[in-house]
Amino acid sequence: MPEQSPGSRPTLEAVAARAGVSRATASRVVNGGNGVRKPLVDKVLQAVDELGYIPNHAARTLVTRRTGAVAVVIAEPEIRIFSDPFFSQQIRGISKELTAHDTQLVLLLVEGPGDFDRIARYLSGGHVDGALAFSLHTDDPLPAITRRAGVPTVYGGRPGWTADPGAGAVPYVDADNRGGARVAVRYLRELGRERIAHIAGPPDQTSAQDRFDGYRDVLLDVDPTLVAAGAFTVESGARAMAELLERRPDLDAVFAANDLMASGALRVLRERGITVPDRVALVGFDDMASVAEATDPPLTTVSQDIEGQGRLMARLLLRGLNRDGSGADTPDSVITPTTLVRRASA
């Protein structure tokens, strides 16, 4: 049996010798290959543990045709990603699921249009087994890029883009945005509020579209003076709130399409001396604890399981990859429920 010098890295030959098998058999076992009887697999794995052998990643890739990595593509600039807790929660869920399956997360960010070529080259280069993409906009080229690269992909959010009409149906994970918005606005109506304003999210994102549709489902004939556009940021929520107060100082409730915009709206209301919820009731969306529980008063909001959605995205992708290695049989999309969480702002 070959001896390992102190401090040297164990070799595959040493594993084979310790297990009493050929080098080819040891290679198939440690690199995930098939066709080895279970008693021999057990011997090789025991030798791996005893020697502390670390398989060679390149060799594993040649045998399994898998890289053991998944790209997470976020179609937002870096400053937005690291300032919005939504993204950290979703990435946390993705990371937990990938880690549980011994898969590496590779984060790809889109700072501007020039980044799409870089991402296309990377995805086409065989560096990852699949991709998870979220926060896409209707004119995003990412669906076309992943399709041309032949990379199995699961999306975060209901597809609504128009840049790749040939993509067909794609798997995605999303929350019941429209239903959650309906619950929020109905609740405000039940409180006796009659002039309910809406701070909408970006119109080129389906989550914002669906929440606006839920608002309209309840109010039917929407007064356009009670609607202002935001961008899912604190600053945009503050600007929209100021705009609404200029147009409709008589408003008595606000449904904001996310918690960050709701917190910006709350700041403006307090600066104007408008009490919440006595004078104006305020409801957000997302239920991000770092935002909703930190405002004064704490936000009533629609809760969605953001971290759980991240885990589901990764689970769907890995399940499809594990079926035939290509992701061609990826399971159907998932819509997760939303619930109203009542706090002091409404």
SSE string: HHHHEHHEHEHEEHEHEHEHEHEHEE
* Helical amount: 40-55%
Terminal CA distance reads 74 Å
Strand order of the largest sheet: 2-1-3-4-5-11
- What are the low-pLDDT stretches, counting only 5+ consecutive residues below 50? none
Q: Biggest sheet, open or closed, and with what strands and sense? A: 6 strands, parallel
**DSSP, total strands:** 12
What overall geometry do the principal axes of the alpha carbons give?
elongated
Global structural class: alpha/beta
Indicate the proportion of strand residues.
15-25%
The tally of helices reads 14
Rg, alpha carbons: 25 Å
Q: How confident overall, as mean pLDDT?
A: 88
Polypeptide structure, described:
This protein has 346 residues and is an alpha/beta fold. It contains 14 helices and 12 strands. Helix 1 (12-19) crosses helix 2 and helix 9 packs parallel to helix 10. The radius of gyration is 25 Å and the shape is elongated. The termini are far apart. The model has no long low-confidence stretch (mean pLDDT 88).
Q: Which helices and strands, and how do they pair?
A:
Elements: H1 12-19, H2 23-30, H3 38-51, H4 57-64, E1 69-74, H5 78-81, H6 85-100, E2 104-109, H7 115-124, E3 130-134, H8 142-149, E4 153-156, E5 172-175, H9 177-190, E6 196-200, H10 206-219, E7 227-229, H11 234-247, E8 253-256, H12 259-271, E9 281-286, H13 289-292, E10 300-303, H14 306-324, E11 334-336, E12 339-341
Parallel strand pairs: 1-2, 1-3, 3-4, 4-5, 5-11, 6-7, 6-8, 8-9, 9-10
Antiparallel strand pairs: 10-12
Helix pairs in contact: 1-2, 1-3, 2-3, 6-14, 7-8, 9-10, 11-12
